[in-house]
Design goal:
Layout: H1 5-15, H2 19-28, H3 33-51, E1 58-65, E2 71-79, H4 82-85, H5 88-104, H6 109-113, E3 116-118, E4 121-124, H7 125-136, E5 141-149, E6 153-159, E7 163-170, H8 174-187, H9 199-214, H10 220-238, E8 244-245, E9 248-252, H11 253-260, E10 263-271, H12 283-292
Helix pairs in contact: 1-2, 1-3, 2-3, 3-7, 5-7, 9-10
Length: 293
């Protein structure tokens, strides 16, 4: 069967693959476009599996909040380069994933990946992810998501597309919620208050401070007081209530909330790539390696 330009164009539009790959596959399937699509899907899955080991530390954070500001979802989807995050395909993937989390509240990542990408498309999120990897040529991963059911009202803030914050505030006005979300984006508190700081985190800091204080050669009782002082300072630094408010450092967030008659119940802060060990590339060596090959 003759492989016409119109046939190649149709396959390209239906798969998003390159023109040469479409033509090659149509030749292999003797112009059967459905068989070509199936073959390209299988090939795409294989390509996606090959790229699965590559580090994906760039990406986007997205937030979706219900109209009543009572339920919100935050997601992080990763890719390998910042360039891909600017593409419509990747942005649509992130947007659809965030909508699915908000609307269907999956129990975990496995459940999320098995869900349809949208109400209008039964293709699963996992199938969509793999197809996009095959099309673009980069590893991608839906890394994490979180859902907040607010006791008060949700406020949120996006710093660009790399840092996102949702916060559950009871009392105060809309501006207070936005200001607190911006504060969290900038100041990175670990939790709301001291009672929420994990015991293992406190112990780790105590061990570090104790070792540092012991090197001073001072008596044990002085060392103990030095450690207590460092821990108190540390607790203020990592808790939202203990931090100086970014828009008015003369008062703490706790003082700000008290004056507004408001309470923070919970918050979540995502930053793209946090905790992912990025592979350090030597650009000159990479260019030389490509030139030699």
């Amino acid at each position: 069967m003759a492989i016409t330009a119109a046939l190649v164009k149709e396959l390209r539009e239906r798969t998003g693959a390159g023109m040469m790959e479409c033509k090659k596959t149509l030749v292999e399937t003797d112009g059967d476009i459905d068989a070509a699509i199936e073959q390209m899907r299988k090939s795409g899955m294989a390509k996606a599996d090959k790229k699965a080991g590559r580090t994906a530390a760039e990406g986007l954070v997205a937030i979706k909040v219900a109209p009543d500001n009572k339920t919100g979802a935050i997601v992080e989807v990763n890719c390998e380069t910042d360039f891909v995050t600017k593409g419509e395909d990747f942005q649509n993937l992130v947007d659809n994933v965030a909508n699915r989390v908000l609307n269907d509240k999956p129990a975990d990542l496995d459940a999320l990946m098995a869900m349809p990408i949208s109400d209008a498309d039964s293709t699963t999120i996992e199938e969509t992810r793999k197809a996009l990897i095959a099309k673009i040529g980069e590893n991608m991963a839906v890394r994490r998501f979180e859902i907040i059911e607010a006791r008060g009202k949700l406020s949120h803030y996006m710093h660009g597309s790399r840092i996102g914050v949702m916060i559950d505030v009871e009392g105060g006005d809309e501006q207070l919620g936005k200001d607190l979300a911006m504060h969290i984006a900038a100041s990175r508190p670990v939790c709301v208050s001291e009672e929420h700081v994990p015991a293992d985190v406190i112990q780790k800091e105590k061990d570090i401070f104790s070792a540092q204080a012991a090197e001073s050669g001072k008596p044990a009782d002085i060392v103990e007081k030095m450690v207590e002082g460092r821990i108190k300072k540390f607790m203020k630094e990592v808790t939202l209530l203990g931090q100086p408010f970014v828009k008015d450092p003369d008062q703490t967030v706790e003082q700000l909330l008290k004056s507004a008659g408001a309470t923070v119940h919970q918050f979540v802060r995502y930053e793209v790539g946090e905790g992912i060990e990025k592979k350090q590339e030597n650009f000159a060596e990479e260019v030389m390696a490509q030139a030699k090959s």
